[in-house]
Specification:
There is one protein chain. This protein has eight helices and 14 strands. By secondary structure, it is an alpha+beta fold. It is globular, with a radius of gyration of 20 Å.
Length: 292
Amino acid sequence: MAGRAVSLAKVLCRPISEDDLAAATQILYEGFAERPLAFWQGAIRKLATRSSPDGYPRYGYLLISDSAPVGCLLTIFAAAEPERGLGVRCSLSAHYTRAQFRPFASLMTMRALRHKEVTYLNLTPAPQTVTMLEAHGYQRFCAGGLLIAPQLTKPLPGVTVEPFCTDGAATKALSGADRTTLSDHADMGCISLVVTGPDGPMPFVLQRRRVIRNLLPVTQLIYCRQIDDFARVAGNLGRHLGIFRAPLMLVDADGPMPALHGRMLQLPKYYKGPQRPRIGDLSYTELPILGV
């Protein structure tokens, strides 16, 4: 195919079907070989078994030429949660197209972005894609991440931290939406915690991941009600997890936070759609679901 023009009539985009899963996995591994094949196999299994809203693709889209997949875009749609004031959100995750077909890669993006009621997220954009994102109408909603050593933050007195437990008294005092969020993310392998202080119980979801070229291990904040909640109890969370489990924590931020001492990392996040995402809420996105 190299050296020959590719006809638009021979290239089409369609949702990934159950019969396409093996081919989609191979395309993703080809495009992101820094991750093992087993990672992409596991990612597809997670998308196959998770709850997905009706009317939206479960996996994403394939770019097809002469009946063969030549590109793939994973999409992760999350159902509306009226109690939390959320509409449908979608994380656009791994996006790869073979070199000779890259002029047609936008077919997948345009197909994915056709739902005007959906808020789309791009949480891990490559620097070279930012111009393209902005051309598609994306806006930055978070400048980066604040990297902190939580044990250096003074704990708030009179605060308890306990793991999420469906039968726990603190868990039962949470709202139904918060309990569901903690339960769902615990099932994804995240750390779901209930922090109880003078103002009552607060939900937190944390995830272990690596940043800075996939080299630095951190515990990242995935969900809290308000980012100020995390700032107040970061010291308590760090002491609960212990210095060996959480020597460093990463929390989304637009700049330095007075209550937390740390270093800002350039990890911008973008969105497109009717609802500007709230800093401190990465729930039901590619980060906890795929573990990227």
